[in-house]
Amino acid sequence: MCAGQSAWHRKMDKEAKCIIKIEGMTCQSCVKTIQESLSNMPGVEKIQVSLENKEASIEYSEEVTSPQQLRDKIDDIGFEATIPEVDTATEEVVIEIEGMTCNSCVNTIESNIAKMDGIDEVKVSLDNKTGHVKFRPAVVLATAIRDAVDDMGFESRIRGNNVETVTINVEGMTCNSCVQSIEGKIGGNDGIQSIKVSLERKEAVVRYAPSITSPPTIREAIDDMGFDATLQNGADLAEFDPLLQKPDNSAMSQTVIIDIEGMTCNSCVKTIDGTISARSDVEKINVSLKDKNAEIIYKSNMTTPEELRTAIEDMGFDATLGGEQNAKVTETVVLGVEGMTCNSCVKSIEGKISEHPGVESISVSLQEKKATIVYDPKNTKPEDLRDVIDDMGFEASLPGGCTTNTEIPPKQLLSTVVLSVEGMTCNSCVRSIEGKLSEHPGVKKIKVSLEDKSATIEYDSNVVNVSALRNAIDDMGFECTIPNAGTTQTTVIDIQGMTCNSCVKTIENKLSETPGVISVKVLLEENNGTVRHDAEIIKTDQIVEAIDDMGFVASVPDVIEAVPKPRQQQRASRELPQGKIGEADKWDIRFSHTKGKMMSEDLEKGAGAVLTCHLHVTGMTCASCVATIERTLSKQDGIKNVLVALMAQKAEVKYDSSYLTPAEIANKIEDMGFGASVIEDETVSDGVVELSITGMTCSSCVHLIESTLAKKPGVKYASVALATGRGKFKYDPSRTGPRDIIEYVQDAGFGAELAASDAKSKTDGLDHKAEIKKWRRSFLFSLIFGIPVVAIVIYFRVIGAGKGAECIFPGVSLENLLLFFLCTPCQIFGGRYFYVQAYKAMKHRATNMDVLIVLATSVAYIYSVIILLIAIIEEHRVSPKTFFDTPPMLLVFVSFGRWLEHIAKGKTSEALAKLMSLQATEAILVKYDDKGDLLSEEQISIDLVHRGDVLKVVPGSKVPVDGKVIEGKTMVDESLITGESMPVSKQAGAAVIGGSINQHGTMLIKATHVGNDTTLAQIVKLVEEAQTSKAPIQRLADRIAGYFVPCIVLISLITLMVHVCLGYRNYHYITEGMKIDDDRNPHEVIWEFAFRCAIAVLCIACPCALGLATPTAVMVGTGVGATNGILIKGGEPLETAHKVQTIIFDKTGTVTQGTPKVVETQPFVNSNVCTLRKLLAIVGTAESSSEHPIGIAITKHAKQSLGAENLGKCTDFQAVPGCGLKCTVSNIEPLLTDPVNAVLGQSFSVLLGNREWMKRHGLLVTMEMDDAMISHEEKAQTAVLVAIDGIIVGSIALADSVKPDAALAVHTLKKMGLTVILLTGDNRKTATAIASQIGINVVFAEVLPSHKVDKVQQLQAKGHCVAMVGDGINDSPALAQADVGIAIGTGTDVAVEAADVVLIKNNLLDVVGAIDLSKHTVRRIHCNFGFAVIYNLIGIPIAAGVLMPIGLMLQPWMAAGAMAMSSVSVVTSSLLLKLYKKPSADKLETDDFLEIQKTVSTATPRDDGIVANSDAEDIELQPRKKPSRAQQKSKTKRDDERRLLDDDDEEEE
Question: In the beta sheet, which residues pair with residue 1527?
Answer without folding.
Answer: none
